[in-house]
Design goal:
Blueprint (H helix, E strand, L loop, with lengths): L7 H10 L2 E5 L4 E7 L2 E8 L23 E2 L9 E4 L6 E4 L6 E6 L6 E7 L12 E2 L2 E2 L4 H7 L2 E5 L4 H5 L3 H4 L10 H16 L5 E11 L1 H10 L10 E5 L8 H15 L5 H10 L2 H5 L6 E2 L2 E2 L16 H7 L7 E6 L13 H11 L5 H7 L6 H29 L6 E6 L6 H4 L8 H5 L16 H20 L21 E3 L12 H10 L23 E5 L4 E5 L6 E5 L5 E6 L2 E3 L6 E8 L4 E8 L2
Parallel strand pairs: 2-4, 8-11, 8-12, 12-13, 13-16, 16-17, 17-18
Antiparallel strand pairs: 1-2, 2-3, 3-7, 5-6, 7-11, 9-10, 14-15, 19-20, 20-23, 21-22, 21-24, 24-25
Helix pairs in contact: 11-13, 13-17
């Protein structure tokens, strides 16, 4: 644990000189600082360091301490290969002793709503102390003091250290599964909030869980996780939708990765060797979570039938999830930073050939014409990446959740742009809204001199009011800001967030989203569906007979109603086929995942098409 070796006399002197405020947690006292009119505690341990034999094991509580623990600095990030947005350069950074959280409170004796934030980064990079534009992006001081809420930001294991699935790890687990260690950390942090946040002036019975990008993915996933039940009461998903990988595919990839380090010995011996390696050696193997504007989703939680019983949309349609008030939305130009500086019409067509099934390529090019100039081609390129990965998927999740719960859903579309020269060309890009949610823009380099405009100030105020009023009441509307309509799947009405928020529009890029739904096999959501039980060893399993050369697959399995959902390696649902004959000839060569249902159970199979 950090600070453990500091002399007691030094700690006492340090805390006295900085007007420290001490709060007692269940594990020991922590000393933070008075910050403006509120309080801040940075780097509170909520778990034991997952080092040595605790690497790739379920989260454990920290050891207790008796002397006040100074909590005045952001904790080190978890080990990662950190890439800069829109860049290919990286640094290896972090420390496995990283399971800490931070708390900002407007007052230690109140019962303020609690907002717990999960950072993004593809589940393989990022931290609670992330710096962008010269500031700590997730610094909760302004959000806490201005919004009168307790803000908590957490850290969790990332990449290979957070999500490795391997037979050698399964042997250590009574349930015979592995992976999802980062999810266990998130749940442990939420349990810490439940048990301790009252001492910081927070209400443990009024917790809003929010996150952006991979953090939003994790928020959505936790809505479907039985172990997270009762740990949060509202949710906000920014620029993300829940994503889970298939266990068998993750295990296959984990075996290949470990064999790249050590190919001989038993599975248990291989894991023992992997535990002896420096964390940087493991992080070095990871690729950029966003390549050419395409989100890779390499390291994600898995359907292990322990923490997660099924894929998110299936769980939403069953109604068996944490039905809480939800805000969900995306930005107008999410993937603009991933677009090359120079784009030709030919590059747009090449992107379509890579990312879009053959039968839909002409239709995509019709809705996103490559044009004749660099500017036109860049717009098409950015539009394809943004709508295919964010705008359409956000609509799907908003529809599925709203159709299957009585709690309200609100959808937003962030269209504000910042005028600072180096980022203005990215328009309303991925993560821009965070400067306004946390109310930190004015302290950043992007707000120097004339670049901090009246419009920026308005957007900061609106987002603060909407987000914190939602935390207080479960409704973002306070009667003062423009009305934000409750989402209905049939109308797709939303709030356009900019300096003049408008809730009167319905349908965001509807024709384009309809095409993306069709191209990737999304057939819409309905309510009140019966949950499909997870597969078990006692149930017969399907026989799959693929012909890799022509893309035809024959499935044999007992049951009267056979349905197969085809996923690509990124976890995108491509098509749904009923019956035992699957024609996949329209798909490009590569590896695909078949989730096969027979009306009683489901199974997962991996196939490779060669052609």
């Amino acid at each position: 644990m950090r600070y453990a070796t500091l002399p007691l006399w030094f700690i006492i002197g340090l805390l006295t000189g900085l007007h420290a405020q001490t709060v007692v947690t269940e594990y020991g006292p922590v000393s933070g600082l008075r910050q403006g009119s509120g309080y801040v505690f940075l780097g509170i341990p909520f778990a034991s360091p997952p080092v040595g034999q605790l690497r790739w094991r379920p989260t454990e509580p920290p050891q207790s301490w008796s002397s006040p623990l100074p909590t005045m600095d952001f904790p080190p990030s978890c080990p990662q290969k950190h890439y800069t947005q829109g860049d290919t350069s990286y640094t290896l950074e972090g420390d496995e002793d990283c399971l800490y959280l931070n708390v900002w409170s407007p007052g230690l004796t109140g019962t303020y709503p609690v907002m717990v934030f999960i950072h993004g980064g593809g589940n393989q990079q990022g931290s609670s102390g992330e710096t962008v534009g010269g500031i700590t992006l997730y610094d909760g001081q302004q959000l806490s003091n201005r919004g009168k809420v307790v803000v908590v930001t957490i850290q969790y294991r990332l990449g290979i250290l957070g999500y490795l699935v391997h037979p050698g790890l399964e042997a250590e687990n009574a349930q015979g599964t592995s992976g999802n260690y980062g999810v266990m950390d998130q749940i442990f942090a939420l349990q810490w909030v439940r048990d301790n946040i009252a001492s910081f002036g927070g209400d443990p019975n009024n917790v809003t869980l929010f996150g952006e990008s991979a953090g939003g993915v994790n928020v959505g996933n936790l809505m479907t996780c039985p172990a997270a039940k009762g740990l949060f009461h509202k949710a906000i998903i920014e620029s993300a939708v829940p994503v889970l990988n298939a266990y068998t595919l993750a295990e296959s990839e984990g075996v290949d990765l470990v064999n790249g380090f050590i190919s001989s010995g038993s599975d248990v011996e291989k894991i023992a060797y992997m535990r002896s390696l420096p964390a940087d050696d493991l992080s070095r193997t990871q690729s950029n979570p966003v390549q050419g504007g395409i989100v890779q989703q390499t390291w994600q939680p898995v359907v292990d039938h322990q923490l997660f019983t099924d894929f998110p949309n299936q769980v939403f349609q069953s109604g068996s999830y944490h039905q809480v008030p939800l805000i969900i939305g995306s930005n107008a130009d999410e993937m603009r930073p991933g677009v090359p500086p120079i784009v030709t019409p030919g590059q747009v067509r090449a992107l379509v050939n890579i990312a879009v099934p053959v039968a839909y390529r002409d239709a995509v090019l019709s809705l996103y014409p490559p044009g004749n100039t660099n500017a036109e081609a860049k717009d098409a390129y950015a539009g394809i990446l943004t709508d295919g990965q964010f705008t359409s998927t956000t609509r799907r999740t908003a529809q599925c959740v709203s159709l299957n719960q009585s709690e309200p859903v609100w959808r937003y579309f962030f269209t504000h742009t910042n005028s600072f020269p180096t980022i203005s060309e990215w328009r309303s890009f991925h993560g821009l809204e965070l400067f306004y949610v946390f109310n930190n823009l004015s302290q950043s380099l992007f707000a120097l001199g004339p670049w901090y405009t009246d419009d920026d100030k308005k957007v900061e105020k609106y987002m603060l009011d909407y987000w914190t009023h939602f935390a207080y009441t479960g409704d973002p509307n306070d009667g003062l800001a423009p009305n934000w309509p409750v989402y209905q799947a049939s109308t797709d009405c939303f709030l356009n967030i900019n300096a003049h928020p408008d809730g009167s529009d319905c349908g965001i890029r509807t024709e384009k989203c309809n095409l993306w739904d069709e191209a990737f096999g999304f057939m819409g959501c309905t309510g009140n569906l019966t949950a499909i039980p997870p597969s078990s060893e006692s149930i017969s399993t399907p026989e799959v007979y693929p012909n890799p050369a022509n893309g035809l697959v024959h499935v044999t399995w007992s049951g009267t109603s056979l349905t197969t959902t085809v996923f690509d390696v990124l976890g995108h649902a491509l098509t749904i086929i009923r019956g035992n004959r699957l024609d996949l000839s329209h798909l490009s060569p590569g590896t695909y995942l078949l989730v096969i249902n027979n009306g009683e159970s489901q199974c997962v199979r991996k196939i490779c098409l060669t052609r």
